[in-house]
Design brief:
By secondary structure, the chain is an alpha/beta fold. Helix 2 packs antiparallel against helix 3.
Amino acid sequence: YIVGPVIISRAFFFPPQEFFPTPTMADVQALKDIANRLRIYSIEATNASNSGHPTSCMSASDIMAVLFHHEMRYDVSLPRGANNDRFILSKGHAAPVLYAAWHVAGHPGITHDDLLQLRKYGHPLEGHPTPRLDFVDVATGSLGQGLSVAAGMAYTGKHFDKADYRVYCMMGDGESAEGSVWEACAFAGHYKLNNLVAIFDVNRLGQSDPAALQHDVEAYQKRVESFGWNAIIVDGHDIAAIIAAFDNGRACTDKPTALIAKTYKGFAHDDAAEGISDQLNWHGKPLGARGEEIIAKIKASTKNLEAFVAPKKPSTKLSEDGPGEVLLSSPPQYGPDDKVATRVAYGTALKKLGQSNDRVVAMDGDTKNSTFAITFQKEFPERFVECFIAEQNLVGVAIGCGCRKRTIPFVSTFAAFFTRAFDQIRMGAISQANIKLVGSHAGISIGEDGPSQMALEDLAMFRTIPSATVFYPSDPVSMERAVELAANTEGIVFIRSSRPALPRLYENDASFAVGKSKVLKSSASDKAVVIGAGVTTAEAMKAYATLAAEGINIRVIDIFCIKPIDQQLLIESARAASNNVITIEDHYPEGGIGSAVAEALAGESGITIKSLAVRRIPSSGPGGKLIEEHGISAAALVAEVKKLA
């Protein structure tokens, strides 16, 4: 077989041929015919919807035919089966060829008529793949993210499941300009994920211009090899060569494999797409009448329009069961006078979860000795994944680890650094991802490190995610319970942790729930209800003591769960406290606790809300000094309450 400019000798590169039998000419022809079917269906579907990306599908069709009908092992009747090989179409705009591939493979829920419903309102065959379909693990289309997810799946297969399933990810050449692709390449190369295969569909053309490297496949090869990969240049329209390249990847046991496939956008065999193939200005456009002409030519050159090669079944026998309920191995154990940073309590709680359930895993971005994920790593080094300083990849890997309920991933870094992975988090929500994100070093209370390290936008960011749950614990007991709740809450969960040591507020046997807050202090004559979290709950408790000594009562609420918010408690508390509400937070005012409370009370008349928040970019300094300087201290709160008294 010729793979690009390299002649592969099976005797040199491959194990005995009983493992990789040479395909017959009939096998190759059948796969070529299947590829032609994929092209036809992609053109038909995009014509029917009058939108879509047929030329991007056409460049990938030969590779897809080999993948689905020769290379991958999967049970078509159980698309997300634990034992199946995995496939991620990172170039999600080529969705029609993915849908066509599952139709040809025999998926019972994807008929030819379904393909013609592409992009129609209410139909699951959307413009880009989403997990509304049972054969899609993650949503794609925001380019550059698929390889990180695939790397997480591959790491899970190799190190957690210890299974032989393989993971495949197809990317476009244009998306390889994204830095997250190379973060993923570095990660997979470092961990020698030999069960991972990346496919670069180098079809030369982007959306509006040629891709930067065009058809310089050697440059792609050198770049990928520099990250520790086995990189193979292959003619992406030569079925036999594609088979040989995949065989080479299976034979490589010490590194991941990348196929650098030289293809042509809009390609069809026998020049059936002449005038469209390798031409600009066809991206994202249905082919219309030209498409009908091309379909006729493809059909004329296809030997068997009903060609079918049965997909190979997987051999592994993993259980399909999920992790089940996850509980702390022991309750919180803090003394009444203990002061413990919630970031420290996070590490303690995570270790306890790991002790009770071996599907709990953790990963970090080289901050584990600050986030205290190191506590888990010391106890369970085999279940800890160091992702280094690459937060986009960190989140993507976590999403992959959590797919198919193989693990419950906890992901930690400084909360501020999750901002650079916001698109991964946004896409994670569309992907129905089950990941737990824990951000430390929240707000100005971290002190001398300065504003680049201070998370002051994180609550706003996570509150915009429709399906997210957001916790902000104020003491070590509530932090341990927040971690336990997160493990058992499906979807994206964010926990905000604090650097300063905080006093214990709750008894060790206190119970907590998603969507519920706690009233810490109340009376029948409260002048206002004060709502805080983390360090500002501690400030509110100081203010309560000062005011009580002067005969002024306030109600203090520890919000604990910001999303979903405890709306009923907030309404009742506001009414019981003279309709005066004061929020106090170590966060910018936009999108934080004040915004959340205002939204919850928006339908209530007569309630006055005052927000104490960080209102300008801070500087370095002692945490206590900064809290005073920015008006979120106990003294500032006392002054605000006295304006109402």
